[in-house]
């Protein structure tokens, strides 16, 4: 599942291509909205809220999309060949005189009134990359269920919005706790640092084409490793701290990576 920084980058690309422009093509290839026609409308802008994308139009409508695991938006110049996948995977086409935005494999695509956006994003916690970021609220939500596993609490977008599986594994490594440790077993200073580190990581990567956690903060920038991530995707390879082979386990259909020496807590 894309992380919040990836979704923000997607929103920026869509906004540059569409905002302020009149749509010349509108094609929503989902049964519920297949007859909807946005042609002739001006796009007011595209914004990210957590992992949700909101494309707003002048008539008071918003196109809500969510990438989840497989979805993607691609932007092409007028006349450029589309390369995001076969035609049967296309769920949306929005075009103006200069650019075409194509949504592939979008599991969530719906039109709603802009005034009703809270129906789809109102449940989200503070957005790590949004203007509503509130570390105190995020910390309270994260710790609200002490018996819950850290990994689950971090991935719950109702606590803090924007963390995906990559950041979850990396944050647990930085906190020296396995993803299965109950969040209530973290000390308050460590939990507070976990929230602040999450913010730092996403902020540092919001402009990067290739995500990194090993060099994402000033304290880490002196690292000489060529590895971009501490544990994610590194199963069987040596831990960058202690050299112990990194382990991998399936966790609710998502892989979890951790160091059995550096991180304390249950392992499943």
UniProtKB/TrEMBL annotation:
Residues covered by the FPG-type domain: 230-264
UniProtKB keywords: DNA damage, DNA repair, DNA-binding, Glycosidase, Hydrolase, Lyase, Metal-binding, Multifunctional enzyme, Zinc, Zinc-finger
Cofactor section: Zn(2+)
Enzyme class, UniProt record, top EC level: lyase
InterPro entries for this protein: DNA_glyclase_Znf_dom_DNA_BS, FPG_cat, FPG_N, H2TH_FPG, Nei2_N, Ribosomal_uS13-like_H2TH, Znf_DNA_glyclase/AP_lyase, Znf_FPG/IleRS
Gene3D superfamilies membership: 1.10.8.50, MutM-like, N-terminal
CDD domains: AcNei2_N
Start and end residues of each Formamidopyrimidine-DNA glycosylase catalytic domain: 2-130
Transmembrane segments: none
Catalytic activity: 2'-deoxyribonucleotide-(2'-deoxyribose 5'-phosphate)-2'-deoxyribonucleotide-DNA = a 3'-end 2'-deoxyribonucleotide-(2,3-dehydro-2,3-deoxyribose 5'-phosphate)-DNA + a 5'-end 5'-phospho-2'-deoxyribonucleoside-DNA + H(+)
Pfam hit, one: zf-FPG_IleRS
EC number(s) per entry: 4.2.99.18
Membership in a protein family: Belongs to the FPG family.
Protein name per its UniProtKB record: DNA-(apurinic or apyrimidinic site) lyase
């Amino acid at each position: 599942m894309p992380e919040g920084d990836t979704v923000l980058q997607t929103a920026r690309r869509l906004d540059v291509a569409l905002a302020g422009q009149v749509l010349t093509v509108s094609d929503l290839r989902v049964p519920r909205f297949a007859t909807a026609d946005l042609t002739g409308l001006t796009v007011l802008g595209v914004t990210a809220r957590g992992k949700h994308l909101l494309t707003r139009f002048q008539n008071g409508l918003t196109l809500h999309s969510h990438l989840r695991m497989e979805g993607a938006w691609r932007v092409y110049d007028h006349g450029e060949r589309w390369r995001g996948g076969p035609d049967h995977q296309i769920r949306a086409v929005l075009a103006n005189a200069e650019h075409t935005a194509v949504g592939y494999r979008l599991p969530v695509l719906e039109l709603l009134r802009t005034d009703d956006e809270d129906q789809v994003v109102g449940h989200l916690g503070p957005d790590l990359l949004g203007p509503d970021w509130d570390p105190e609220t995020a910390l309270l939500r994260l710790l609200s269920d002490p018996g819950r596993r850290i990994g689950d609490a971090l991935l719950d977008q109702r606590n803090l919005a924007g963390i995906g599986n990559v950041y979850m594994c990396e944050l647990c490594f930085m906190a020296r706790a396995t993803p299965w440790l109950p969040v209530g077993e973290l000390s308050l200073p460590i939990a507070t640092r976990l929230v602040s580190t999450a913010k730092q990581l996403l902020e540092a990567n919001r402009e990067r084409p290739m995500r990194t956690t090993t060099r994402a903060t000033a304290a880490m920038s002196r690292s000489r490793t060529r590895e971009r991530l501490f544990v994610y995707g590194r199963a069987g390879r040596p831990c960058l701290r202690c050299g112990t082979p990194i382990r991998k386990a399936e966790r609710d259909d998502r892989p979890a990576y951790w160091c059995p020496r550096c991180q304390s807590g249950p392992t499943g």
